[in-house]
């Protein structure tokens, strides 16, 4: 397996409950290394731009409002097969379906307040990383 990068967001439900360190620890314990990280308060423009793929879905407005409701932590993660590894440690979107020990099983409040976002492919990871980070902000 090759060392690759993926993108992660620690969502408002987690930052509100002061879980940034606990979530990051689970990512690191899974073999992922944080090579860029920043805490931001997402603007409407950022939320709508980032989630533009969902703009025609009924939950789009609610999703954007949620992502702007509290600070988030955007991160670039690096590791062997980073996208798959991150998705495995995150767990299923619905925390009720997530495996024991995963981030969502441990910390998520609901399907909507599910603690983390992670890229679903290397192609999307590159797009999502570039949305929030300049190349010089990523230090490995």
Automatic annotation (TrEMBL):
Record Gene3D superfamilies: Nucleoside diphosphate kinase-like domain
Enzyme class: transferase
Catalytic activity: a ribonucleoside 5'-diphosphate + ATP = a ribonucleoside 5'-triphosphate + ADP; a 2'-deoxyribonucleoside 5'-diphosphate + ATP = a 2'-deoxyribonucleoside 5'-triphosphate + ADP
Binding site for ATP: 11, 59, 87, 93, 104, 114
EC number: 2.7.4.6
Cofactor: Mg(2+)
Record: active site: 117
One record GO biological process: GTP biosynthetic process
Pfam families: NDK
InterPro entries: NDK-like_dom (IPR034907), NDK-like_dom_sf (IPR036850), Nucleoside_diP_kinase (IPR001564), Nucleoside_diP_kinase_AS (IPR023005)
Residue ranges of domain Nucleoside diphosphate kinase-like in the record: 3-140
Primary localization class, coarse: cytoplasm
Record keywords, A-Z: ATP-binding, Cytoplasm, Kinase, Magnesium, Metal-binding, Nucleotide metabolism, Nucleotide-binding, Phosphoprotein, Transferase
Location in the cell: Cytoplasm
Family note: Belongs to the NDK family.
Function: Major role in the synthesis of nucleoside triphosphates other than ATP. The ATP gamma phosphate is transferred to the NDP beta phosphate via a ping-pong mechanism, using a phosphorylated active-site intermediate.
Protein name in UniProt: Nucleoside diphosphate kinase
Native source organism of the sequence: Novosphingobium arvoryzae
UniProt lineage: Bacteria, Pseudomonadati, Pseudomonadota, Alphaproteobacteria, Sphingomonadales
């Amino acid at each position: 397996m090759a060392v690759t990068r993926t993108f992660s967001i620690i969502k408002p439900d987690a930052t509100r409950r002061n879980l940034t360190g606990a979530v990051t620890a689970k990512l690191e314990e899974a073999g992922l290394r944080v090579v860029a990280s920043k805490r931001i308060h997402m603007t409407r423009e950022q939320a709508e731009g980032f989630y533009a793929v969902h703009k025609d879905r009924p939950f789009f407005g609610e999703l954007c409002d949620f992502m702007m409701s509290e600070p988030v932590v955007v991160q670039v993660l690096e590791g062997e097969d980073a996208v798959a590894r991150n998705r495995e440690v995150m767990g299923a979107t619905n925390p009720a379906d997530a495996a024991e020990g995963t981030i969502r099983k441990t910390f998520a409040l609901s399907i909507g307040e599910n603690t983390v976002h992670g890229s679903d492919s290397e192609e999307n990871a590159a797009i999502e990383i570039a949305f929030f980070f300049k190349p010089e902000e990523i230090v490995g």
